[in-house]
Write a structure and sequence with these properties.
- By secondary structure, the chain is α/β, with parallel strands linked by helices.
- It has a single domain, classed as Rossmann fold (3-Layer(aba) Sandwich).
- Helix content is 38%, strand content 16%.
- The protein has 4 helices and 3 strands.
- The chain has a 3-stranded parallel beta sheet.
- Helix 1 links the parallel strand 1 and strand 2.
- It is globular, with a radius of gyration of 13 Å.
- The protein starts with 9 loop residues before the first strand and ends with a helix.
Length: 102
Amino acid sequence: MPHAEKGLAVGLFGGSFNPPHAGHALVAEIALRRLALDQLWWMVTPGNPLKNTRELAPLGERLQLSEQIAKNPKIKVTAFEAAHHVRYTADTLALVKARNPG
Protein backbone atom coordinates (compact mmCIF):
# COMPACT_ATOMS: atom_id res chain seq x y z
CA MET A 1 0.00 0.00 0.00
CA PRO A 2 1.34 3.46 -0.79
CA HIS A 3 2.42 5.52 2.19
CA ALA A 4 0.10 8.31 3.30
CA GLU A 5 0.92 10.76 6.05
CA LYS A 6 -1.85 11.41 8.55
CA GLY A 7 -4.08 14.24 7.35
CA LEU A 8 -3.51 13.72 3.62
CA ALA A 9 -6.57 13.62 1.39
CA VAL A 10 -6.33 10.28 -0.44
CA GLY A 11 -8.74 9.01 -3.08
CA LEU A 12 -9.11 5.43 -4.30
CA PHE A 13 -9.67 4.64 -7.98
CA GLY A 14 -10.35 0.95 -8.42
CA GLY A 15 -10.63 -0.97 -11.63
CA SER A 16 -9.33 -3.72 -13.85
CA PHE A 17 -7.40 -1.24 -16.01
CA ASN A 18 -7.56 -3.77 -18.84
CA PRO A 19 -5.93 -1.96 -20.47
CA PRO A 20 -5.26 1.33 -18.72
CA HIS A 21 -5.83 4.23 -21.11
CA ALA A 22 -5.98 8.01 -21.44
CA GLY A 23 -9.56 8.01 -20.15
CA HIS A 24 -8.39 6.58 -16.83
CA ALA A 25 -5.69 9.26 -16.63
CA LEU A 26 -8.23 12.00 -17.41
CA VAL A 27 -10.65 10.80 -14.71
CA ALA A 28 -7.74 10.65 -12.26
CA GLU A 29 -6.59 14.20 -13.06
CA ILE A 30 -10.13 15.55 -12.70
CA ALA A 31 -10.56 13.73 -9.36
CA LEU A 32 -7.26 15.11 -8.06
CA ARG A 33 -8.32 18.67 -8.91
CA ARG A 34 -12.02 18.64 -8.07
CA LEU A 35 -11.65 16.71 -4.83
CA ALA A 36 -8.43 18.51 -3.82
CA LEU A 37 -6.67 15.19 -3.27
CA ASP A 38 -3.07 14.91 -2.13
CA GLN A 39 -2.85 11.40 -3.59
CA LEU A 40 -4.96 9.11 -5.74
CA TRP A 41 -4.33 5.39 -5.45
CA TRP A 42 -5.04 3.33 -8.54
CA MET A 43 -6.23 0.04 -7.08
CA VAL A 44 -5.56 -2.34 -9.98
CA THR A 45 -7.73 -5.32 -9.18
CA PRO A 46 -6.56 -8.88 -9.80
CA GLY A 47 -10.02 -9.55 -11.24
CA ASN A 48 -13.54 -8.28 -10.84
CA PRO A 49 -15.53 -11.02 -9.09
CA LEU A 50 -18.63 -9.98 -11.03
CA LYS A 51 -17.04 -10.17 -14.49
CA ASN A 52 -15.58 -12.86 -16.72
CA THR A 53 -11.80 -12.75 -16.36
CA ARG A 54 -10.93 -14.95 -19.35
CA GLU A 55 -9.69 -12.00 -21.39
CA LEU A 56 -8.02 -10.22 -18.48
CA ALA A 57 -4.35 -9.41 -19.08
CA PRO A 58 -1.95 -10.56 -16.35
CA LEU A 59 -1.89 -8.30 -13.30
CA GLY A 60 1.81 -7.49 -13.68
CA GLU A 61 1.25 -6.28 -17.22
CA ARG A 62 -1.69 -4.10 -16.20
CA LEU A 63 0.33 -2.62 -13.33
CA GLN A 64 3.25 -1.81 -15.61
CA LEU A 65 1.00 -0.18 -18.22
CA SER A 66 -0.83 1.75 -15.49
CA GLU A 67 2.50 3.14 -14.25
CA GLN A 68 3.22 4.36 -17.79
CA ILE A 69 -0.20 6.04 -18.16
CA ALA A 70 -0.32 7.59 -14.66
CA LYS A 71 2.31 10.28 -15.11
CA ASN A 72 1.20 12.54 -12.25
CA PRO A 73 3.38 11.89 -9.17
CA LYS A 74 0.26 12.17 -6.99
CA ILE A 75 -1.06 8.98 -8.60
CA LYS A 76 0.15 5.81 -6.89
CA VAL A 77 -0.45 2.56 -8.77
CA THR A 78 -0.92 -0.40 -6.43
CA ALA A 79 -1.78 -4.09 -6.39
CA PHE A 80 -3.15 -3.72 -2.86
CA GLU A 81 -6.14 -6.00 -3.46
CA ALA A 82 -3.99 -8.83 -4.82
CA ALA A 83 -1.48 -8.46 -1.99
CA HIS A 84 -4.23 -8.67 0.63
CA HIS A 85 -6.49 -11.16 -1.17
CA VAL A 86 -9.52 -8.87 -1.31
CA ARG A 87 -11.83 -8.48 -4.30
CA TYR A 88 -14.79 -6.46 -3.09
CA THR A 89 -14.72 -2.69 -2.64
CA ALA A 90 -16.25 -2.87 0.84
CA ASP A 91 -13.45 -5.20 1.98
CA THR A 92 -10.80 -3.00 0.38
CA LEU A 93 -12.17 0.12 2.07
CA ALA A 94 -12.34 -1.59 5.46
CA LEU A 95 -8.74 -2.75 5.20
CA VAL A 96 -7.43 0.63 3.98
CA LYS A 97 -9.25 2.41 6.81
CA ALA A 98 -7.94 -0.06 9.39
CA ARG A 99 -4.37 0.51 8.22
CA ASN A 100 -4.76 4.29 7.98
CA PRO A 101 -6.89 5.50 10.90
CA GLY A 102 -7.72 9.19 10.87
